[in-house]
Structures are given as C-alpha cells and as structure tokens.
Amino acid sequence: MAKSKRKGKSKQHKPKKVVVQPVVENNVEQQNNNVAEQPVQNEQSSSDEQVALTEKQLLKAQKKEMKAKQKAQAKIDKEKADKLKKEQREKAGKVSLGRRIKETGSEIKKVSWPSFKEVCKKTGIVIAVVIFFAVVIVAFDALLYWLYTLLIGS
Q: Which of 16, 49, 97, 145 sees the fewest Cβ atoms within 10 Å?
C-alpha cells in the first residue's frame, strides 16, 4: 500500500459547528431544519464561507474606520490652518470689515460718556486755553515785528 503524503491528519472531516443567527424569529425553525439536513461537508464549506465573509466584513469595517479617521484628521488640520491664518492676519493688522465694525460697537458700549454739564464745562476750558495762547502768539508776533522795524529802520 502506498502511504499518503499528508502526515498526521486523516482525510476524514470532523463536523464543525455552524453559528446561525436568526434574522426573524419565524425563520429560526426553518434555518435549524436546513442546517440539520445539510451534509457534514456543506457545513464545513459554509463555515469557511462565513469566515471569508466575516474577514471581508472586517476589512470593510477597517477601511471605513480608516477613512473616518482620515476625514477627522483632515478636519482638524484644516481648523489648525484656518486658526494659524487668522492669527497671521491679526498680527499683520488685517482684520475683516465686519469684525472691525463688531469690535467698534463693543468698544463704544464700554465707553463711559460724560454728562452734558461736564461737556459744557470742559468745552469752556478748551476755548479759554485756545484764546489765551492766541493772545500770547499775537503779542509775541507784535514784539518781533517792533524789533525788526528798529533794526532795519524803515
């Protein structure tokens, strides 16, 4: 007799357990009947197919997860780039018109406005100081003109 080339295991296949997940409760009995009627060899091939399907499903799930991670990372990178660009604009003094208007409005709200009495009082002080310096400048100009006429003798 010729010896088989395979070592150790015999050619007989041991029946493997097939995991059947019921989709609908009514179909559970039909599936159990179908599984019981199938020969042992079909159970092995169906389990191999299930393993192959689960591997494919696992690969698909991994690909989806990888794509989701890439999208999330791309979103984070874009946000960082936008933030950096915004900071560079602010450093350069370039701010959008809408933002300037918004900031101006918020600054105006922070201002403590004086009363009408205070405004009138401070305006009077300013006018008095302007008149005083106008008189001093006119007097100094007249003095310099008088000195000029003495030296030239016209």
A: 97
